[in-house]
Structures are given as structure tokens and as C-alpha cells.
Amino acid sequence: MCSNCGVSINEVKSGEFAERMMTILNHGALNLMISIGYRTGLFDVMSKLEPSTSEEIAEASGLDERYVREWLGAMVTGEIIDHDHEKKSYSLPQEHAAWLTREAVPNNIAVTAQWMSILGSVESKIVECFKNGGGVPYDAFERFHEVMSDESSQTVIAPLIDQTLPLLPGITKKLEEGIEVLDVGCGSGFALVHMAKEFPNSRFTGYDISEEAVNRGNSHTAEHGLTNVILIAKDVAEFDDVQKYDLITTFDAVHDQADPDRVLSNINRALKDDGVYLMQDIAGSSHVHNNMDHPLAPLLYTTSCMHCMTVSLSQNGKGLGAMWGKELATDMVNNAGFTQVEIKEQPHDPINYYYIIRK
């Protein structure tokens, strides 16, 4: 019997849920420590070391031993790092390193672990939004563009040339010959830089509302000495290009927009009649009951609530959220004037759908 509510409860079910909650608490704590392991380079260092003491690991990584030792405690009890008590040594199994180090790209899950601390930093602001509505703007999220670049290196850039572009029949040949390409919501433009180096005969333009991201991207472009890339700080709901581009891309960008309908209409207008629009966006259904078997649904809904949706609402926007889903996405693309929509998936990417869209 529940003493507070006077309702009989299933004690077995209640106990199982309590155990699950303990697991969630432990996993939440480990997520933070995994993020620290990535940011400090500890996983990278340990992947190269023989079994070592905390002092040896701290010296090799250039970090404070006391903090390293406490971090190792979390990693050992979380069964991520192995520990030999007799030798006082620690080691990172190669099977784990394959998912935690910079050399593991595009499979480095530690990159994604960084999002939890970023989202947690705005928790109080999100609570206020629950009470009063509105949203939390981009500039409230510390390190957002840095971590987004890390994430994009895995989900966008690493597979772009060999796996993503081949989804579009004939596009590689056209890029080699020379075409006009636009990335809408380009962020720091790393995807464009990657393509510009691979296809020097084509011309690449990127629009993003964030001046910080665009400045970061332009510095990156200059470092590579590229002259076929231009990044422009621009509200993508406002651009008015007409029949200009052979290929337009958006990488997990549309669902964040304040006015996604207008953005999609702008893309339709800017695309040549024989052009193609590639929209990489979050995989999922518009209906929550269809997402019960999605392996990352809780993570995606959480990220949506605490970033994607709230950023849009902070601009008095639509607040689609990351889990807008393929049903709504398809309707909106059609309403923007497109007539052909094909949805593809890739084995390396459980997070995204790839929409191949034509007029």
C-alpha cells in the first residue's frame, strides 16, 4: 500500500523500478565522467599505455594525479576501465577504446556524452520555460559550437564523401565537373570545407544565423587556403536566392528553425529545377507511440526539449523539436513546393534519416 496515496501497488514492479532508477543515476554520473575523459584526452592517452598506475597516467596526460585517481574510481566501478588491485594499475580495454577515443571516429560515443553537461547547464532556464513558456537562446549554451563541430565530424563529415553523397545518383560526377552548392544552417561550415577540398571545381556557400559559427568557419577556410568557399552570417528564413544552386544541403538544421516552413520554401526557390536537396535530419516518427523501439528516443526527446525546441521558441518560433518525425517532415517538404521525397537510412547512423528531395 502506498502510504501517501492509499492505493495498492505491485511491490515487485516497484522494486524493479527502484533498481532501474539507481542504474539511471549511476549511468548519468558516468556520462559526465566519460565527457571529462574525452575532453582531457584521458581515453586517448590510456589507449596507448600498458597497464599503468594513476601517477603514470597523470604524468602521461599532463593532468593532476588526484583528479585522475578519482576519475579512475568512477571508470573502474562503472566497468569502463580495468583495474589490477595487486599491481595498482589501470587499463582501457581496446574493445572500449574503439568507442571512446578520437581515433575511433566516426564511432566515438564519448563525443556525444558532452551534450549532457551542456544541457544540464541550462536546466534552471528550462524549468522557468516550463512555468512561463518561451525558450532558451543559442548563446545560453556554453561550448555549443565546439561540441557541435565534434559531433558533425562524426555524423556528417566522416561519411560525407564515401557514404552520404553517393545516396544522390550522379552528384559526385557533377561536383567533380563544377556546380553551385549551398548549405543552409551551415554552422562552422566544416562540411563545406570538406567538400571544397574534395571538389575544387565546385563553389560552396554557407548561410548560418550565428556570427560566432561563421567567423569560426571562415578562419577554418582560410587555414586551408580555400577560395571556393564563402560563409555568410544570415537568417536562413530571409535569404532570397532564385534558381541558383544545383545541390542544397541541411544537416540536422531544419527542426531547429524558428520558421521552418519559410526556410523550406526558400530552399525550394533557390534550387534549380533539375537540382537536388539533401536533408539530413533526426530519424523518428511524429507519433511518440511509434518511437518506443527507437534505441535513442529518450536521448533525442531530452535533447529536443532542452535545446532544439527551446532555441526555436526563444525566437517566437514553431518549436518543432528534434523529434518532429518523418510524417510531419514529409508534409512540410511537400507544402514547400517539392514533389519528390525519398527517405533513406545508413547503417553507420542510427540518429538520422536522409531525405532526397526534388521539385
Written overview of the protein:
This protein is an alpha/beta fold and 359 residues long. 48% of the residues lie in helices and 16% in strands. It contains 14 helices and nine strands. The protein starts with 10 loop residues before the first helix and ends with a strand.
Task: Give the % helix.
Answer: 40-55%
Structural class: alpha/beta
Query: Sheet with the most strands?
Result: 7 strands, mixed
Q: Average pLDDT, to the nearest integer?
A: 95
Uncertain regions: pLDDT < 50 for 5+ in a row?
none
User: What are the secondary-structure elements, in order, as H or E?
Assistant: HHHHEEHHHHHEHEHEEHEHHEE
**Count of helical regions:** 14
The Rg value, from CA coordinates, equals 23 Å
Give the strand order, joined by hyphens, for the main sheet: 5-4-3-6-7-9-8
Residues in β-strands, percent: 15-25%
Overall shape: it is globular
Strand runs, count? 9
Entry summary:
With 359 residues, this protein is α/β, with parallel strands linked by helices.
Topology:
Layout: H1 11-39, H2 42-48, H3 54-61, H4 65-77, E1 82-84, E2 89-91, H5 94-97, H6 109-120, H7 123-132, H8 144-164, H9 171-177, E3 180-184, H10 190-198, E4 203-208, H11 211-223, E5 229-233, E6 245-251, H12 260-270, E7 271-282, H13 297-314, H14 325-335, E8 340-346, E9 349-358
Parallel strand pairs: 3-4, 3-6, 4-5, 6-7
Antiparallel strand pairs: 1-2, 7-9, 8-9
Task: List the keywords.
359 residues
